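Action item from last week, closing it out:
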Amino acid sequence: MANISKQTQTTFATKQRVQWVDYAKGIGIFLVVFGHTLRGLVNSSILDASTIIISIDQWIYAFHMPLFFCLSGLFIERSASKPLRDFVVSKLKVIAYPYFVWSVFQTILQAIAGSYTNNPIPLTNLWRIVYQPVMQYWFLYTLFVIMLVYAIVHKLNVSPRVFLILAILFYLTQIVDVHLGSWEVLYSVRRYAIYLALGAVVGSSRLMSQLSQWKTKTLLIVIIGGFCAVGLAVGFNLMAVKLLTPIVAIFGIAASVALAIFLDRFNRNGFVKQWGSFSLEIYVAHTIASASLRIFLQYVFGFTEPIAHLILGTVVGIYAPIALYRICQRSRLRYMFRLV
């Protein structure tokens, strides 16, 4: 009976953390779509780059991508325990595959659209995606590299905590401006490995199961305190201090996780959880959706009301990819997003 009870508790804890992780991914992907839509409107001169707009942009970018790397690290210890070949094949299917498919697709679309886009890319540069990520797809490329490194060192019996120490030391080389060569991916790995390592440490510790047990009052304190701390860091331009960048990001990550647990606990805003479960699909296709809407409204109807553009662009950027995924699952295009 004791063994059965313990197993039940473990299963329940696993279910709980998967649920709030989906909420956390939903929060993160909303910030990604909103942030890219905001920048698209500024670059197309629909929206003025005022002090408020710049501050909002800096607030979002202070932690939203570190959040995704951290969430990606939560369960990597378990997946890295598989044979290295199985691990690599699985990541090729769910990370590398959509990277190549959507990098090619979006590059072709931007080349066809030409001057209507904010960042036209010549097709002659398409082959470079093998070593030089384009647009928002840098995240998938960098994530794949960091995960591969983690899996390799895991086979050498390097613990998550040691990997975190190594990631911190690697990040410190950025502080002293150590040059890593011409491959830009290495600089992204140096900047973000620390967050995946942090997620791995949390995911392999008791803290993972304890998070969902935090009192509501504690969650609210972390939510408000964390997001306000990021706001203060932006206001006082602390993001310019490279040594403080991870600390600020961790405040944002903690606040996002607390908000995710809060939403999960009260079973509210289930649509945020839905965003999280479709975070990959939204990530790879949202720019095409929101940019297409912006171009259509601006050049066909001459519509340039910035707030309406921002709202519509964010909504379409989230739900058009979800709709596209569901259509693809019912057709011969079921492998548009993953090779599984």
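Closing note: The chain has one domain: 17-329.
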